[in-house]
User: Which sequence fits this backbone?
């Protein structure tokens, strides 16, 4: 399936995926991608869309608008997809990662939607501090994130619907495997590599460790 001109783009969550793909296929075959869409697994083989969010961003890691990137962009637009071609896809991936780590970490450990979490002063601060750790780790790895990016994303948390939650929260409720290894766990791993402390993300990963493999008998 992978030919001489094949390009691999992962729109999965997380910031470790592209390094793994580069090792498997070679860095020249990889473009970065990030997708914004609110869905949940309604049943096996059925994905339910649970909100109007729809945005897809991709690009070359060197920031160039390559011919292959332009071809894919044109194909997406022709298919009616809301797509953007980024000149800094690594930053785009991390921008989503900042919010997603906090949303997944809080909603899953607290078993709550975002509304109560953002309204309670203590849990609101926890949400913000989770994002601050991610921003610090990203900046330590050379990602062009503003120092106050966590505060910017907290404003986003105040605008979303109060019943918004994360796919990881849904997975916990259904006894499915959790992606915590690639979210809070990745923050801990990357923070350790640059000597950036990540105690709150470590706490999220530790709290969910017993459920990470899934438990189909969960309530």
Assistant:
């Amino acid at each position: 399936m992978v030919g001489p001109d094949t390009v691999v783009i992962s729109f999965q969550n997380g910031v470790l995926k592209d390094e793994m793909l580069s090792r498997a296929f070679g860095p020249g075959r990889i473009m970065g991608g990030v997708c914004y869409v609110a869905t949940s697994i309604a049943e096996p083989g059925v994905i339910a869309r649970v909100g109007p969010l729809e945005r897809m961003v991709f690009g070359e890691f060197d920031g160039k608008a390559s011919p292959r990137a332009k071809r894919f962009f044109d194909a997406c637009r022709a298919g009616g997809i809301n797509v953007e071609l980024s000149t800094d896809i690594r930053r785009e991936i991390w921008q989503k990662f900042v919010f997603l780590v906090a949303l997944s970490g809080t909603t899953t450990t607290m078993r709550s939607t975002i509304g109560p979490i953002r309204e309670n002063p203590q849990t609101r601060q926890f949400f913000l501090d989770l994002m601050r750790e991610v921003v610090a780790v990203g900046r330590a790895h050379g990602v062009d994130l503003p120092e106050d990016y966590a505060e910017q994303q907290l404003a986003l948390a105040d605008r979303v619907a109060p019943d918004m939650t994360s796919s990881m929260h849904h997975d916990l409720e259904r006894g499915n495997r959790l992606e915590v290894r690639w979210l809070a766990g990745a923050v801990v791993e990357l923070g350790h590599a640059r000597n950036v402390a990540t105690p709150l993300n470590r706490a999220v990963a530790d709290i969910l460790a017993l459920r990470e493999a899934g438990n189909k008998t969960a309530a």
